[in-house]
Amino acid sequence: MLCCAGSLWAQPKPQQWQMVTQPSYHEMLKGFATPPNQYAQTLTWGLEGPIGRDNISRDLDEMYKQGIRAVSIEGGYGMPEPYLSPGYFENVKIIVEELKKRNMHLWIIDEGKYPSGFAGGLISQKSPELRMQGIVVSKRLRTEDNQPLSIDLPKQTLSAVAVNTSTQENKVLDISSGKLNWPATPGTWQITVVDHRFKTSVTRAANNPTHGKDTVNSLIDYLDPAATRKFMEYTHEQYKKYIGAEFGKTVLGFRGDEPEYGFTPWTPELLKIFKEKKQYDITPYLASFFIQQPTEEQKMAKADFFDVWSDLFRDNFFKVQADWCRANGLEYMVHIDREDMLMQLVRSEGDYFKDMRYVQVPGVDAIWHQIWYDNVADFPKLASSAAHMYGRPRALSESFAAYRPAPTVADARWVVNEEMVRGINLFEYMFWSSSANRKEGAPASQRGYLHDTAFVKLSAYSNRASWLLANGIPAARVGLYCPTEAMWTGNKMADSTLRVIGKQLLEHQVDFDYVDNQGLASDFRLQKGSFTNLSGQKYTAIIVPSANVLSADMIARLKTFATGGGKVIFAGEVPGKMTYPNFLHATDLPKQPWVTYADWTNLTSDFFAQLPHDVILNKTAPGVKYLHREWKNADLYFFFNEGKEAQDLQVTLNGSGSVTFWDAETGTTQAANGANQKGNQTQLPLQLKGYETRFVIIQH
Known about the structure:
Strand content: 25-35%
InterPro entries: Class_I_gatase-like, Ulvan_degrading_GH
Protein name: Alpha-L-rhamnosidase-like protein
Pfam families: Glyco_hydro_106
């Protein structure tokens, strides 16, 4: 029986590494040189070839020498004992035994390759009724001037719409009789008919002899909790049989990878659930999702549809797994797809923050050149913001799998720092292939940056730095609203202005979290001009980029926030609609007197002066970024100079007391010279070489 939250079984008490903590200065100092291995970075270990105890031990010894203290196993190609077979699990048991001997830890990638959710092909083979489904175009028919049409439709047909090819006018067709009847009508029209059917996004499977991406092994219906439980019966529950005694000890959790829809989702209960949530029938609108120029009404209906299916994705896929992991003393960490391209993400994933709402370790990936010296990117803040908003200490980046050219250790360090200063504090370095599949005599220099002797220092550095950044309470006071709801309506400016405003904030040393409708409308505690998230972090300013529509609940709470002393700034297109009772029937939203307005194309000094600052530089330095966390009796500041030019700065920091620099590479500390106290602030000189980082700790 699959045990989830809500079971009568007692829930394991969370361990320190699983909780947001606020330790003291001396507690952090005591652990700094050798942080607990549960906080260690991990690497993807591909189980390929004839796996056995000898090559398992050899690989782990090599990894340990490189500073690695945790691994993420992925079932791979060429194993004599196929993925998810009894022999495979016996090898996993050996891995856990060998890890335990070395005080190392294990994350389990929940699929043999990717994306998560096909159980190595067992869903298609044993549970085909639970396969993924979608809404697809079944017919496109063309009629000329006054040409009538009448055809019988199969029972799975959902909707039809006719579009005039000259004017783009469209007409929703009534097909409730099971027939499509098109009367003689002037003009040329294209009729689009849609139905639902079994359909899957592509998968790459360890058990697929082609080693390619195809649709042979279907994913589950992510919107059906029974399908998710069946997937876990084939995977998670089998691991539990073999290594469950080490759950929460040697085994830290499961890691998911890129669950996504490459098309419009469907699940058998969707129409019923939609009507319960939105109080109207979505069926007539479904075909309009597949035409180029839908009406505003049809765009709003599509937004309602995305709102509903993203709720189902959150509750019936991600939450089911998170609940199971929590009930078994584990963490569920996962990243989805296209985190660096939000307009594409909302089509394939629904809503990043809904997906991550119950996930213990939210994630992104930077596996190709989404982040590089010439491509500074802020999307890692999606994962750290989700962690901050919803009370999680860790945020994941799956990193470097497909960088071309492959990174050197110096390159990897720069990318790691770029992400850490945006809140990432758990890296899965990629990729370590099992020595069972390695050509004899292949030198380390041909096996990539993970095998370079210089990686030992990066490993030590990232382990200590990430431990520092996983403790304490995040201290950013600005929330930048992520307008997913506007993106569902096709509003590209919502995405563009979000990126520009976020970039400008960081270049002016104003740290922020992305915040979402869930938090602002209901989940955050609202009192006296502040929103407090589930980490205990307080936002005193909320910035809304371009958005044509906001939820009524969010508007009501923003008004209370503003009238209590909080700052609300609309910095783009002013929302003209309020989703009450739903998107389709959204009501007009007049300008609000409690809102301050700004122009995202010209964010002036007056704009930045309205915002809370915990770091002030004596000169402009857009390449210097920082992160601030609060301990019980100290403030941690992490600085990174993203540019190659050295920076000689005077900085003013919130918090007063004795100041030390902590070196995450060596595990040593040094008193800072020249620091002066002024009220509750500290002023000090800060020199940063090109690409250099610095941890500044102020002990109260």
